[in-house]
Design a protein that fits this description.
The complex is a heterodimer of chains A (about 110) and B (about 110).
Chain A: E1 5-7, E2 10-14, E3 19-24, E4 29-37, E5 44-49, E6 55-58, E7 61-65, E8 71-76, E9 85-93, E10 103-104, E11 108-113
Parallel strand pairs in A: 2-11
Antiparallel strand pairs in A: 1-3, 3-8, 4-5, 4-9, 6-7, 7-8, 9-10, 9-11
Chain B: E1 5-7, E2 10-13, E3 19-24, E4 31-37, E5 44-50, E6 53-56, E7 65-68, E8 75-79, E9 88-95, E10 103-104, E11 108-112
Parallel strand pairs in B: 2-11
Antiparallel strand pairs in B: 1-3, 3-8, 4-5, 4-9, 5-6, 7-8, 9-10, 9-11
The chains are: A mainly beta (about 110), B mainly beta (about 110).
Chain lengths: ~110, ~110
């Protein structure tokens, strides 16, 4: 079983603070995705990264894919209460032979308070 | 455009009872996925369909779980009999094809007592 570890598991911060969430594996990804899931809802895709070293920005969110395509990070600048939710990374591993099989991380639960 | 629809949203049953979940994917999406999400965990794939064919069911506990997608559109996932450890959120997702973006439904939250 290929594991995808996320850290930290829980994060409680105040509005305006910055934070970084990490996603790590010992195997190489063909692509990696970040999702946000709110209570009672399914995960919603934020971004897909495919190239080693790739950086993508989505407003205050910055996503980085490691050079070796084994890790990724999500950085949020000036967090707002609306950023509260469960952040999941999900990777398609090269050795599964298919981009359709996603392995999800355990998630990082973020709470942003006023 | 409507998203992925799942029903019921919540289900409470006693152990050893059967239960079924229904999913209607986004119109035109040929690929359909069923995931199970335990509390505090990420989703785990149970089965993936390409049209009506189950192309990956390696993670489906076949002794008690079954799924079908007879006409390549709607799908049902059944558990018979349910066990306490089956309590989880069951998510359905669809995509326009293999490797394309997966869109998730809101899930069915199952509690087995």
């Amino acid at each position: 079983t290929q594991l995808l570890e996320q850290s930290p598991q829980f994060l409680s911060i105040q509005e305006g603070e910055n934070l970084t969430v990490y996603c790590n594996s010992s195997s190489v990804f063909s692509s990696l995705q970040w999702y946000r899931q709110e209570p009672g809802e399914g995960p919603v895709l934020l971004v897909t990264v495919v190239t080693g070293g790739e950086v993508k920005k989505l407003k205050r969110l910055t996503f980085q894919f490691g050079d070796a395509r084994k890790d990724s990070s999500l950085h949020i600048t000036a967090a707002q209460p609306g950023d509260t939710g469960l952040y999941l990374c999900a990777g398609a591993f090269v050795n599964t032979g298919t981009a359709s099989k996603l392995t999800f991380g355990t998630g990082t639960r973020l709470q942003v308070t006023l | 455009e409507a998203g992925v629809v799942q029903s019921p949203r919540y289900k409470i049953i006693e152990k050893k009872q059967p239960v079924a979940f229904w999913c209607n994917p986004i119109s035109g999406h040929n690929t359909l996925y069923w995931y199970r999400q335990n509390l505090g965990q990420g989703p785990e794939l149970l089965i993936r369909y390409e049209n009506e064919e189950a192309v990956d069911d390696s993670q489906l506990p076949k002794d008690r779980f079954s799924a079908e997608r007879l006409k390549g559109v709607d799908s049902t996932l059944k558990i018979q009999p349910a066990e306490l450890g089956d309590s989880a959120v069951y998510l359905c997702a669809s995509s326009s094809g293999p490797g394309q973006t997966q869109y998730f439904g809101p899930g069915t939250r199952l509690l087995v007592l």
